[in-house]
Amino acid sequence: MTPDPVTNVITELVDTYCAAWNDADPARRLALLRSVWDRHGTYTDPTIHLTSAEELSDHIGRVLTRFPDTRILRTSAVDSHHGILRFAFRRAAPDGQTLRDGLDFGEVGVDGRLRRIVGFFGPLVETANRS
Amino acid sequence: MTPDPVTNVITELVDTYCAAWNDADPARRLALLRSVWDRHGTYTDPTIHLTSAEELSDHIGRVLTRFPDTRILRTSAVDSHHGILRFAFRRAAPDGQTLRDGLDFGEVGVDGRLRRIVGFFGPLVETANRS
Hints:
- The first copy, chain A, is α+β, with helices and mostly antiparallel strands.
- Chain A is built from three helices and seven strands.
- In chain A, strands 1, 2, 3, 4, 5, 6 and 7 form a seven-stranded mixed β-sheet that branches.
- The interface of A and B includes residues 45, 84, 87 and 127 of A.
């Protein structure tokens, strides 16, 4: 898989988004988010559904208060087609331990910003390969 | 993870959807799809974007002509929240060999049918855990 220009642009979007998750400074965090977030962008994970960059920034602030000095790390390449993307991430403790693994699914809007992130936590539960 | 009623309903939707992928009879396949497919449902994978049950049924027919007697098997539990779902699948050859692994994301519409399936092929490419 050779990165193409579209993949590079989408990967940059995702990395700025992840950087926002790791910035404890509210003003800087919101500025990072706004630089990649669609005006109508939504964020949804198993615990919450949010409908603006401001709400998401506040949510990240609460998470960082609860889990100080933890970081979100992208742990896979960003895989995308048709403006839809997926990537794996983990939340790492200051000592490097993994607090949570997850998978984000996202959509890029017509203006080239993230209009949706949907997060899933943990691994998929494998089932027997049914016939 | 104890299955709850919503999970059971969504799993049934997905299993009917997968059954449609395995039915070489065009009329029966379309009937299966229509029973779970939202009127405005879309299907997108790396190769194609389709906007109706009829288009999707025709697409499945072409795939089954190209890969006769292969089957789509769901290989994970269906993980869902907020009407959004993910599950792993594989296309198995008649001898059981895996031709393709994939991950489907989906959305359930207000009428309880699939309004979107987005497929990704292959595993995510792991990256070094950056700090």
